[in-house]
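queue> pop job 88
queue> type: inverse folding (structure -> sequence)
queue> payload:
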């Protein structure tokens, strides 16, 4: 491979940024944009030094096990590819060794597409893992295992999927533009490889969208289950209150300091108990017939 065909800078400091811009005639604005953690994917071309700047995002796993995305800048000219990223590119060691002897190894466009393929592979791996987590959460739906932690996990997965979509969709739009109407001739030459990258992105996008639909379905289903259980609980508590109030009413009347029918009769207490039991059982039977509980 031609010397310095690919130059990669990882979290460069001020001095390194200046060296990159001076030595390779890069626009400092784009280099600094690549170091902005919230930078969105986009494509820009400058005529001054015939550079094409592509900013996209790649997925990586933090030391805590969380999945994040970070921006990466591809600066292309006719001679070399320059990449700048804020975080370590996970697949960087897997790209050059197997491609060094490739006939297109000295083509910066070909090299960029190979890097994008590796980035796609990382996205696919993370999406597959998150899909498995969604399936396991779905299996526990309706059981007591789905608690607060599960819903927090729902939020994290949904955030990851939206983050992936926010990276993959603009990247695909950029690649289509470069293949179909770009002034960079290398993309037309490597059209088949570029379309492979686009197809991989499309599959990842579709999987993310399907997972988001599953998460929404789980959320709606669990909301319905929760509403049903709450409604049933309220009905039961209401019925219990009614059943308790019936004997309370009778005993309260005979506890008043006024004359009441049969209050001095020897069987008054037993009769009162019987009346209460009959009334409670009747109310319970009506509630069961009406499927209150």
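queue> result:
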């Amino acid at each position: 491979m031609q010397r310095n065909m690919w130059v990669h800078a990882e979290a460069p400091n001020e001095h390194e940024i200046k060296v990159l811009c001076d030595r390779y005639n890069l626009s400092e604005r784009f280099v600094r944009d690549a170091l902005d953690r919230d930078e969105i994917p986009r494509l820009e071309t400058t005529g001054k030094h015939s550079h094409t700047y592509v900013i996209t995002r790649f997925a990586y796993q933090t030391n805590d096990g969380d999945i994040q995305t970070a921006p990466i800048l591809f600066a292309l000219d006719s001679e070399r590819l320059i990449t700048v990223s804020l975080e370590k590119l996970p697949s960087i060691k897997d790209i050059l060794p197997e491609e060094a002897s490739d006939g297109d190894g000295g083509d910066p466009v070909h090299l960029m597409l190979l890097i994008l393929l590796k980035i796609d592979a990382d996205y696919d791996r993370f999406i597959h893992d998150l899909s498995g987590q969604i399936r396991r959460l779905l299996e526990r739906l309706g059981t007591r295992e789905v608690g607060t932690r599960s819903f927090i996990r729902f939020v994290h997965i949904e955030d990851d999927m939206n983050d992936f979509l926010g990276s993959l969709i603009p990247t695909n739009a950029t690649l289509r533009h470069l293949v179909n109407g770009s002034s960079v001739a290398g993309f037309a030459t490597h059209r088949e490889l570029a379309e492979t990258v686009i197809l991989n992105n499309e599959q990842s996008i579709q999987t993310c969208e399907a997972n988001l639909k599953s998460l929404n379905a789980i959320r709606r289903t669990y909301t319905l289950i929760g509403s049903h259980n709450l409604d049933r609980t309220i009905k039961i508590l209401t019925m219990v209150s009614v059943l308790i109030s019936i004997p309370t009413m009778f005993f309260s009347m005979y506890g008043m300091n006024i004359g009441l029918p049969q209050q001095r009769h020897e069987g008054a207490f037993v009769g009162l108990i019987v009346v209460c039991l009959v009334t409670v059982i009747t109310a319970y039977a009506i509630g069961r017939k009406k499927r209150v509980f």
